[in-house]
Amino acid sequence: MGRIMSIDFGTKRIGVAATDTLRISAHGKGTFTPDTIGKFLDDFLMNEPVDKIVIGMPSKPSDQFSAALDKFVASIATHSRAPEIVFHDEDFTSIDAREAIQASGVSKKQRRNKEMLDEVSAIIILQDYLGHREDF
Predict the structure, then answer these.
(1) How far is Cα 48 from Cα 36, in angstroms, rounded to an integer?
(2) pTM, whole model, 2 decimals?
(3) Among 9, 93, 117, 132, which has the minimal tally of Cβ within 10 Å of its Cβ?
(4) Residue 73: count of CB within 10 angstroms of its CB
(5) Angle, helix 37-47 to helix 63-77, in steps of 10 degrees
(6) How far apart are the C-alpha atoms of 82 and 39, rounded to whole Å?
(7) Which CATH fold would you assign to the domain 3-130?
């Protein structure tokens, strides 16, 4: 059984999370730029079994976002080990991520870290997809 990966896609930053091999828990894998995500995904897909990628989709995406997302999905689909790609509602994940980060006791300075916010958002998208999400 392969992992399930989630992506909090953005035009500036892309948060990534993945399950363990038993699909029990979600773990952050980092935050990447549109320029660096391709290499990370290539390496991850070549070294880890991934059955599915869950991409967070806002309910009202902008045209710029939709065009960038279409290009991103097309680049994944052409990978030699391309997994199934599904979309999942990501509305309010950034708000939930802020609350989770704040509840974890992270300092105010660290809470402003947008990379952390995107990675936690990817974790929340994956937890929600798996049905493991608890309200904060």
Answers:
(1) 18
(2) 0.85
(3) 132
(4) 16
(5) 30
(6) 14
(7) Nucleotidyltransferase; domain 5 (3.30.420)
